[in-house]
Amino acid sequence: MQPEQQLAELVRGVVDIHVEADLLARLHEGRPLKVKAGFDPTRPDLHLGHTVLMTKMRQFQELGHEVVFVVGDFTAQIGDPSGRNSTRPVPTRDEIVEGARTYAEQAFKILDPDHTRVVFNSEWLGAMRFDDVIRLAGKYTLARMMEREDFKQRFAEHRSISVHELLYPLAQAYDSVALECDVELGGTDQLFNLMVGREIMREYGLRPQIVMTTPILEGLNAREEGGRIVGDKMSKSLDNYVGVTEAPIEQLGKLMSISDGVMWRYYALLSARPVAEIALLRQACEAGRENPRDAKLALAGEIVTRYHGPQAADVAKQAWEAQFSRREVPADMPTREITAEGGAIWIPKALAEAGLVKSSSEGRRRLEQGGVTVDGQRVTDPKATLVRGGPYVVRAGKRAWASITVK
Fold first, then answer.
1. Residue 277's closest CA among 268, 287, 265, 288?
2. Domain at 246-327: CATH architecture
3. Closest by alpha carbon to 386, among 352, 345, 341?
4. 3-state secondary structure of 269
5. CB 82 within 8 A of CB 192
C-alpha cells in the first residue's frame, strides 16, 4: 500500500490520534515503524475487550510494521490507576508471572507470532537505580500529573492517592524511551499515560511517539439508549465478558445474549467484515428484510471461528440451535436488566420487574401453575430466586419471553 492508503486503513476505528500528519510523514519514510502496546498481566485471561487493541496491532503487522508486545511485569507491581477511584491492589509476583505467561500465549491467537517481539519491562525498569527514578520524576511536574481526571476527582473527594501511583505514567512513558517507539497504542482510558510518553521522549531527546487510541468495548449487559450504548466496559471483575480461551459454545452463547442494538457496536469493533457490508446488513435488519437473530449468529460464528476454527464454530452453532431454536424461543425476545438486593431476586418479583406479568402475585400464580421456565427448565418452587448474573432465558406463559440479566 501507498502511505496514504496505509494511513486510511490504520486510522479506521481509532478514537484519538496525535499526530496524524506525523504518522503520514513516517509512513513516507518507507521503513517499518516500531509499534508498541503494553499489557499489565494482573489477570491471567484476555477477553474480547482486549482484542480491539490487538486487532489494530495485527493491522500494523499486515502492513509490514514491527509490533512490540510489552508485558508489564514491572508496572503491574505499581498498578495502573487509570479510571480508578481508589488505589489498585498489588498482585503477587506469582500472579504476575502466571499472567505474563498466559497473556503471551493468548495474544498469538490474534497477532502474528513471527512478526511480534515480546518484551518484559522489568528488563529496563528493574535495572534502574533510585537516582535514575529521581531524574525521571524530575522531567514531569505534579501540576501536569494532577490534570489527570481520575487523580483530580480523587483529590477533590479527599480520596487517597499514593505516591507510587504518580510514578505509573512515568514508568509507562519510560518504556517508550527504552524501546524508541514510533507509535504507541492503547485504549481511550490510556490517553493520559500515552501523552506523557510523548513528553518524556522529548525530554530524553527522542522523536515523540505517535499516540493512537482504540475504543473501549462495552460488556455483555450493555444496552442502547437514545442511539448511545450505555454500560460498563467489558471486564472479568464485572462478569460481563467473553474470554478468548472460553469454550466455543460458551463464547457463542454469551454473544447471542447481547441486545440487538449492542450487536452493531460489537460488529464495528470486532468483525473483520468491511464497514460498508456491515452498514448494508444493519439497514436490512432495521427494515425487516433480515432477521437480527441471524445477523447476531453470523457475528458470533465469526468470532468463535477466529479463536477455535470453523469446525468448532459449526458445532457450537448446532448446539445453540438445538438448545434454543428448537424450543421456539422468539428471535425478537426483549432483554431486561433488573437489580437484586443481597445477590438474588425472587422469581415472581423478577417476572414483574421484567414486564412479563403485572404483579409479583400474578408471577407466583404462573409459577405455581407450571407456566414459568428458566433456561428451558420448569420452575415450580414458590421460593425460587434468580441469582446475580445471567442472562437467563425466562418464559412466563406461552408468549411472554425475556432475556433477563440480574445485577
1. 268
2. Orthogonal Bundle (1.10)
3. 345
4. helix
5. yes
Q: How many residues does the chain have?
A: 407
For the cut 60, the answer to whether the pLDDT of residue 87 exceeds it is: no
Report the pLDDT averaged over residues 122-147.
Answer: 94
Start-end of CATH 3.10.290.10 domains in the chain: 335-406
- The CATH 3.40.50.620 domain(s) of the chain lie at 3-214
Contacts of 231 by beta carbon, 8 Å cutoff, 6+ apart: 218, 219, 221, 222, 223, 240, 262
Q: Does residue 282 contact residue 271 with C-beta atoms inside 8 Å? A: no
Which residues, in sequence order, are bridge partners of residue 186?
Answer: 213
The hierarchical CATH code for the domain 3-214 is 3.40.50.620
pLDDT digits (tens, 9 = 90+) for 262-274: 899 999 899 988 8
Strand 372-374 vs strand 389-396: parallel, antiparallel, or unpaired? antiparallel
Cis, peptide link before residue 19, omega less than 30° from 0: yes
pLDDT in tens, 20-60: 999 999 999 999 999 999 988 766 678 999 899 999 999 99
Task: Give the HSE-up count for residue 263: Cα atoms under 13 Å, Cβ half-sphere.
Answer: 26
State the average pLDDT over residues 128-145: 94
DSSP 182-228: SEEEEEGGGHHHHHHHHHHHHHTT-PPPEEEEEPPPB-TT-EEETTE
Q: What is the pLDDT of residues 311-334, one digit of tens each?
A: 999 998 888 777 665 555 665 677
335, pLDDT greater than 60? yes
**Please, are residues 168 and 193 in contact by the beta-carbon 8 Å criterion?**
yes
What cell numbers appear for 94 in the block? Answer: 506469582
Amino acid at 256: M
Least confident of 8-17, 58-67, 137-146, 385-394: 385-394
**What does the alpha-carbon distance between residue 7 and residue 54 come to, in Å, rounded to a whole number?**
18
Nearest to 50 by CA among 171, 185, 230: 185
**What does the alpha-carbon distance between residue 21 and residue 25 come to, in Å, rounded to a whole number?**
6
The CATH code belonging to domain 335-406 is 3.10.290.10
Q: Are 54 and 111 in contact (CB under 8 A)?
A: yes
SS3 35: strand
Q: Which whole number is the average pLDDT over 79-104?
A: 68
